[in-house]
Amino acid sequence: MLPLMVNIQNRIFILLFQRNFNEMEQLIHSGKFDALLTIPVSPLFYATNRIIRVRALTMSAMELCTFFVIAVYFQLPISLAGFVRGSFMMFWGIVVMYAVSLTLNCFLFRNSQIGNVNNILGELRYQGRYPFSIFPQKLYAIFTTIMPVAFFGYFAAAALFHKLSILAYVYVPIFAMSTLAFSIFLWRKQITHYSSASS
């Protein structure tokens, strides 16, 4: 179920944000970002929410159907409370994915030689497919802080099956909000140093 939960969370992220982040490099280095700075909408909001991927919506629906079929067929112990907790953790996982994407994309303002930094996140997202109980404690600590792979599906799956401590329900939202606040701060700082691509 863990790989399926990771896929569902990834599809939702891809549906809402991935294409926008993938096009961020072109937006910044082609000069199109200059126009975003003149519109009365937040450049951050517009740059990361311009396009929604319809294909990801159909894939999300198929994976949700697969999830429910597997849950019913194998009579998995999923309760309504577990579903709510899993959804709660998935929401915060998507917030962390957004924040990490935004942080990585901030490097594009400073260096035009950096390739598509979103490939890094793509690789990280799929590392969440593995149960974290197989990793040493030090690696688990890294995956829940510096390199937040555990947020990319593991916490949602563990919450679904009531495998998380109460502390995790406090830590995850605080970490997600802190990461998002840092990424927005970094974004705003980069905007102040941004000079037109045409100059």
Describe this structure in words.
By secondary structure, the chain is mostly helical. It has one domain (2-193). Helix content is 69%, strand content 0%. The chain has ten helices and no strands. It has helices at residues 2-22, 24-30, 32-36, 43-49, 54-73, 80-106, 118-125, 137-143, 154-160, 166-193. The longest helix is centred in the C-terminal third of the chain and has 28 residues, at 166-193.
Shape annotation: globular
Beta-strand level of the residues, as a percent range?
A: under 5%
Distance linking N and C termini? 51 Å
Number of domains: 1
H/E topology pattern: HHHHHHHHHH
Describe this structure in a few short sentences.
The chain is mainly α and about 200 residues long. Helix content is about 70%, strand content about 0%.
Give the helices and strands, then pairings.
Blueprint: H1 2-22, H2 24-30, H3 32-36, H4 43-49, H5 54-73, H6 80-106, H7 118-125, H8 137-143, H9 154-160, H10 166-193
Helix pairs in contact: 1-5, 1-6, 6-9, 6-10
Labels describing this entry:
mainly alpha, 199 residues, 10 helices
